[in-house]
Amino acid sequence: MSLDRTTSLASLIVLATGVAWGFYWLSVRALDANGLAGAWGTVAMTLAASLLIVPFARFGRSAPSAPLSSYAFVALGGAAFALYSIGFVQGRVAMIILLWFFSPVWSTLIGRFIMGWAISALRIAAIVTGLSGLAILMGADGSPLPENAGEVMSLLGGFLWSISTTGIRVKPPLAPAKAALVFAFGATATALALALIFAPPPLPEIAHPGATALIAIAAGGFWWGLTLAALMWAAVRLDPARVSILLMSEVLVGTLSAALLAGERMSAFELLGGGLILAAGVLEIWPTQRAAPRKQL
Fold this sequence. Notes:
The protein is mostly helical. It has helices at about 5-20, 25-35, 40-55, 70-90, 95-100, 105-115, 120-140, 150-170, 175-200, 210-235, 240-245, 250-260, 270-290. The chain has one domain. It is globular, with a radius of gyration of 18 Å. Mean pLDDT is about 85; it is low at about 290-295.
């Protein structure tokens, strides 16, 4: 497959993943309502995904030179997504999604100051715009700090995701199924640690155990298995900022679904701050779209 076609396919996969994840919060809230409170719902979904992926990962091959660091960066991505997932229990859907999507700014800062990559004037503008949007978004309620634990988790998760995608981009790749398994393991370990710290057993009685198990298995298999295996394949073929931008399809879908299904609304200042964060994302991807295709690392 030519480089252009590979890039186009990878971009389409990331875009579709964002749309799918715009509805992910529904499964988190459903498990929470059925008794798997806090991080336990994420534990159930990621554990189910891990078990479902194992048979496929057995037959997948990693690049012969894939070092331990390749596994570590993929597992870190799983940890980041676990924080994001748990955040939906603690905060409003639109806020959690927007704070996560501050990650393109993190990606650019990491690329410039850690990796030594060149930075354009538009990307400098993106940093300024993104930081301005974050300040407005956080200060909309009168405080410059996150309002709840969910917002802290989302902001931290976005930062870890930026580190993860940068590492995934520059390290030898894992086979998609194996990457999805490592990703799910990283998420399970993170969610389990947080669950044991903040909501140790015994757990409340689980309502409708059969339906709860079915939700966990279906959500784990689809979101944490299928979509993330595809995302892991695509992420190694795209610039980290491009990955973050294309996933922004989740912002629109998640915000609209939360407004329609959960009655969540955002204030004018929150919309302004969120808009600036999304504008920063546009500025991030603009130079990449106009640049000549880069060789795969």
